[in-house]
Amino acid sequence: MYFYLKQFHFNTRQKTFVIYCFFAFISSYLFAQKSEIDTIIHLEEVKIFAQSIPKFAVGASIKKIDSNTIFNNQSENLGELLMRQTGIYFKQYGGGMLSTPSFRGTGASHTAILWNGININSLSLGQSDFSSFLVGNFQNIEIQSGGNSALYGSDALGGSIHLGSEVDFSSKKIIQISQQFGSFGQRMTNLQTIFGTKKIESKTNFYQQKSLNNFSFSNRTTKGFPIETQNNAGYQTTGFQQELNIRLTPQKYISFKSWYQQRHLEIQPTMNANEDKNSYTHQFESNLRLVMDFVNVNQNRNILLKLAYIDDKFTYQSSSQTNTKRGIFQGKYETNITSKLSLQTGINAIFIHTEVDSYAQNYQEFRNDIFALLHYQYHKNFKLSLNIRQAFINQISAPFSPSLGFEYQSNTKQKIFISGLISRNFRFPTLNDRYWNPGGNINLRPENSWSSEVSISTLYQSNTKKWAIKPKITAYKMWVNDWILWQNIGNLWTPQNLRKVQSSGLENEIDIVYQHKKINFSLKLGYHFTKSINIENENTINPQFNLKQLPYTPFHRFFSQFNIQTKNSSIGLNAHYTGVRFENLDNRNDILGAVPAFFLVNFNCHHNFQYRKNNFGISFKINNLLNESYQNYLFRAMQGRNYQISLNYKFRN
């Protein structure tokens, strides 16, 4: 154990946490997670998990990743899964490298990432790397497209992604062991245990993923496009998660959640620098996240108190150090005013401390939010929500953020669902935006936007319920003001509130399912059109940049998923298309200014068999089945055809 800690260079704080998690793992008995094939004939009407996005998100476009998909893709990084399963575009800086989302034409920092209700985006960069999130780390994955700062505060301007686990007080003993092997030296090990009674529940998770990532690619920057081996692109991720839930009374429980992760990443060079060892760089990062909840649930009132601590460390090239710490308090009180009207009020308080080499000094600041949320159920087929939030931060005037949403369901046999949402949203400047030395701008205003959307869907279902079709279309429009841009002024790069952006689009999706005896067939199709244009830049020298598509925002995204599923086996084919993206605002459509469109096909199959209380599973995947040579970010190579095989063992008592 000591040798293992030593080789990863843990400090005293990290060693203590790792040892704690190790003994918690041993004490959990060795129990496994149950894997059952979810009923799919009911489409999204089935709730696999208790909803973590609150009921006050009326009118929002929400998508849930079901438990079967999570289980079958537990060794994937979250960016890869969402790129395949949704219309969200992820900008990737190479295979296994930095991966950031773009909702509806907004940037990476316009997405709030909430783990068990806490925003875990980097305070210095304002974003999260989805290549460092493994799907198997979460029981619950939910996505809300469109802004909703009234519910989630800063960053929720373009969308939000909710990650977490569920509390289940039932008697169980579970162990799950998974091992994956893949191309380019990829290895993934995962151990999970769950021990539960009607009074206490303990969950422990250990995982390690590593890859040499030495794939072959066609070098588009060299004459003749020679085949080269990718250099300096390896990575290793190691992490522990521990959760303890204690039931105090039938109405009250307390929960402790911890998550420590460290990641060493060689930063993949561009194609033209692949052979230049002087250009190779690397980084090391570690994240410690702790959350404690107290929950009191009664018939007419609910109380939630939450304490959290997050410590993010980032080291670039063994020299540049970034360390941000935050303590968080959340308090929520919900009551039923009448049988139809619910009210939730609350406060969110954050204390931030920085230790960053590139800042002139260590900074401290307080951020506070107060909010009130109303939910009105006019009758069983129509409901409304009205939410408001006001945020406060040192030296910054945050905008007042309301939202109004509705949902309607027809009484006819042919069900029609209509929903809509209008909201004002905001994003605080990052710590780097304000304090970077030299260049930070302490006078930056928060980015703010108004957004609106409306969705219409229907459900066709046979009388025997053997087949069902559910189409859905969503139209949206967003206006963003004071978009922050870094620009060169007198040989000094500094951020300014310069850009005004207008984003609009259509999201079309259809789910088709058919059940024949004990075989389920499912097909999901989606097409997203996004037009996100620069309206104007203040003091711009090049007005021709106006009305041009924003960099790395594809007009077109298409995705599809076809599955055949039985009780113990499944086979699936996934395909997704991403249109041309431009490197700059000039929308230059040549080899130096445009990233070509790409079309990827992925194959997967799974088989489980059970012996008494033991469940064994094997999965096989072929990614990039057609061996497409493509780039997601200009001149950053991506992996060609590659293979993965996973072995799983589960025991449940």
Which structural traits does this protein have?
653 residues, mainly beta, 22-stranded antiparallel β-barrel, 5-stranded mixed beta sheet, 6 helices, 7% helix, globular, disordered N terminus
Topology record:
Layout: H1 2-7, H2 12-27, E1 61-65, H3 67-72, H4 78-85, E2 89-92, E3 99-102, E4 111-115, E5 118-119, E6 140-145, H5 149-152, E7 159-164, E8 172-182, E9 186-196, E10 200-211, E11 216-218, E12 227-229, E13 235-249, E14 252-267, E15 281-297, E16 301-316, E17 320-336, E18 341-356, E19 364-379, E20 382-393, E21 401-409, E22 415-427, H6 431-435, E23 447-461, E24 467-489, E25 492-516, E26 519-537, E27 556-565, E28 569-578, E29 581-582, E30 594-595, E31 598-611, E32 614-623, E33 642-652
Parallel strand pairs: 4-7
Antiparallel strand pairs: 1-6, 2-3, 4-5, 6-7, 8-9, 8-33, 9-10, 10-13, 11-12, 13-14, 14-15, 15-16, 16-17, 17-18, 18-19, 19-20, 20-21, 21-22, 22-23, 23-24, 24-25, 25-26, 26-27, 27-28, 28-31, 29-30, 31-32, 32-33
Your description of this structure?
Strand 18 and strand 19 form a beta hairpin. This protein has a 22-stranded antiparallel beta barrel. Strands 1-6-7-4-5 form a five-stranded mixed β-sheet. Helix content is 7%, strand content 55%. It has 653 residues and is mainly β. The protein has helices at residues 2-7, 12-27, 67-72, 78-85, 149-152, 431-435; strands at residues 61-65, 89-92, 99-102, 111-115, 118-119, 140-145, 159-164, 172-182, 186-196, 200-211, 216-218, 227-229, 235-249, 252-267, 281-297, 301-316, 320-336, 341-356, 364-379, 382-393, 401-409, 415-427, 447-461, 467-489, 492-516, 519-537, 556-565, 569-578, 581-582, 594-595, 598-611, 614-623, 642-652. The longest helix is centred in the first third of the chain and has 16 residues, at 12-27.
